[in-house]
Amino acid sequence: MIALKNSEILRYLGYQNIQPDQHIEALIERCKEKVIQRSTPRKSVGIFPLVFQDDTLIIESMHIHSKSLYRNLSGCDKVCLMGVTIGPAIDQLIRRAEITNLVEAAIYQAIGAAYVEAWADAINEEIKETMRHEGYYCRPRFSPGYGDFDLSFQTQFSQLLDLPHTTGITLSNTLLMMPSKSVTALIGCSTKEEPCILAGCEACNKTNCTFRRNKQ
Questions:
Q1: CB 101 within 8 A of CB 69
Q2: What is the share, in percent, of the chain residues with pLDDT greater than 90?
């Protein structure tokens, strides 16, 4: 069961310390029920050796030049690649709502974003538990397009995980994933536990982002 938090849905809708009215709350619940009923979460995970060669990170066919990813993976000798999606139904719901009700369309977008992140979090936890049994500790997940980790690596991610067949995820000519509510990421694995806990909003220095999580 994927834990889908209303607080995350509201964050994606842009509510910051403001409670929506009862009409919006009821609409969110109706839309959330439809998304949960129609979504088809799928995943693909692969474990690969990691090689450091000067300033280059080598993962199978990927030769990556990224200072931020290099720091994230320092001390690791394996990486887990993951691709997850909640399926194409959410895109269909969004497209229909864009014709009939733009408020609903925005709510579906927010629910889809929160749902796929929750699904990615769940798979991330499974990976951490699996690697822990093998004597490894996991770093925060890192996605193509984040920081200086170029989005072009989506193509090799897709090939290494065979995403079209394992999850139904395909790439557009501009490297956007379809279904749109999909996530790819890699997770560094080290035999040494490091105080490396920052991820997502907590690791990002863009403090004026509309969707930034508030500190708890």
A1: no
A2: 82
